Amino acid sequence: MPSIRASNSTFPIRAILGVFKLRIGVVITFTALAGLAVSSGPSLSLLQLLVLTLSVLLSSASAGAFNQYYEHDSDLLMSRTSKRPFVTGELRHEPVWLLVIAALMTLSVGAAWIALNAWSALFVFLGAFFYAIVYTVWLKRRTWLNIVFGGLAGSWAVLAGATAANPQLGVVPLALALVLFLWTPPHFWSLAIAFRDDYAAAGVPMLPVVVGDQQAANTIFLSTLALVAASLLPLLFGLGAIYGVGAIVGGFLFIQKAWRLTRDPCRKSAMICFHASLIQLTLVLLGAILDAQSGF
């Protein structure tokens, strides 16, 4: 096992939970369950549902751990990430962590392949690959488009859930995957405005670093309009009133906060917009699940 420096019995749990970014993993798993809910395929058995949930969660955890392992030097330069376990030394930065990460990834993909199907396993893999390699290694330090393509991780999770029930993808799961793709940039760019100085110090070309806060805020607003428009597409292909309420209420809130951000592109407005994006996504995903299960 990787070396852990612990001062008390509860410490390893806290450190490990932090390095695997389990809060993000829970959100990614929620998107997969939404993809499953809107799929036209047969219901999964309880075992298959458990495998899907754990596969997506573990693959996301492995990608999150790799992100922190790979970026431990630059994390030291940012106030937002300076307390991460590899930075503080709570967890030793040792190559054995790569074996743990690879084992988790192999376990999650293999379980999905055996219990579900090859398509679902592929999308489980792609979700982790896009976050760990495409975003973290290839794009993050090279282009402001990093989060645009790296954000496909959430889209792949939707498709992993959808294909778990039916390898033949329907229009609604694809539309929901598009929503996740369009959601990630304005969500993350809002956070990047709040922590622009951090990203600049670390040499990461996030959009606000490249074009400034005002232009970034304008881009967030336009991106949010595109996102909300896309979030209404599932209404044309089978989802009903419950989903519509969630998409409209969440979309209105996000647009309102994004507009206010263009009027005052400061840290406070950026964080308000960031939290509005989380509410919007929650309402969309929860609306999709409830609507699909309601039978209306």
Quick gist of this model?
It comes from Candidatus Accumulibacter contiguus. The protein is mainly alpha-helical and 296 residues long.
Structure description:
It is built from 15 helices and no strands. It is flat. It folds into 2 domains: 1-143 and 152-168, Orthogonal Bundle (Tetracycline Repressor, domain 2); 170-296, Four Helix Bundle (Hemerythrin (Met), subunit A), CATH 1.20.120. It has 296 residues and is mainly α. The longest helix is centred in the C-terminal third of the chain and has 28 residues, at 267-294. Its EC number is 2.5.1.141. It is an enzyme of class 2 (transferase).
Strand content: under 5%
What count of structural domains?
A: 2
Could you tell me the mean pLDDT? 93
Query: What is the H-and-E element order?
Result: HHHHHHHHHHHHHHH
Major sheet summary line: none
Report the structural category.
mainly alpha
The shape, in one word, is flat
- The gyration radius over C-alpha positions equals 19 Å
For the record, the CATH architecture of the largest domain stands as Orthogonal Bundle
Helix content estimate = over 70%
Task: Count the E strands.
Answer: 0
Query: Could you name the CATH class of the largest domain?
Result: Mainly Alpha
Instruction: Please give the alpha-carbon distance between the first and last residues.
Output: 50 Å
CATH domain topology of the largest domain: Tetracycline Repressor, domain 2
User: Are there runs of 5+ residues with pLDDT below 50, and where?
Assistant: 4-10
Task: List the total number of helices.
Answer: 15
| The CATH homologous superfamily of the largest domain | UbiA prenyltransferase
